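Because discrete structure vocabularies remain unfamiliar, we first show an illustrative case, written as a sequence plus integers encoding its fold.
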Amino acid sequence: MPDAITYRAATGDNDLQAIMQLQKINLPAKITAEELKEQGFVTVDHDMETLRDMNTPFGHSTAWDGNTLAGYALVMETRFRDRIPILFPMFELLDGVVCQGKPLQEWAYFVMGQVCVAKPYRGSGVFAGLYRDMQERLSGDFDFIITEISTRNPRSIRAHEKVGFQNIHEYTDPWGEHWVVVALGLRTKT
């Protein structure tokens, strides 16, 4: 199946609509507790305006099987720190997280705003392909991809480790949710 998959930056509202459709069916309220634990989930339900703004100038990575969206990984620059209220505490925390001896705010990084692979494509290499696409397209502009993963989502933690993300910080939020902050180096800063 992965041989038929093509990877590219999202372009236009049709791509963004497909992302939103896949996102909505993978929110915790839309899946069973067993799926949530075994298959993972997404946390944020983006609106079209925010998704469109996040797609410029660095497009989201998308994986396509013909006209079917097999998966996506969202690019969220730090300029969105105040745009999505649920993520504000994450950006505040990230400012002080140390990566390779320096606070993240001293590095050029973006947050992988969400990754999701459609059920029929899970375990087929699409997840790794989305990150390869991000690395190839964005390594000239950024040092790191950063994301945080709930420890309630062990499948996502394992998948990120498998493609090379390293744990750089862990914390428990005020609501008792435990998070792991991970980083994937895109280039070496000199």
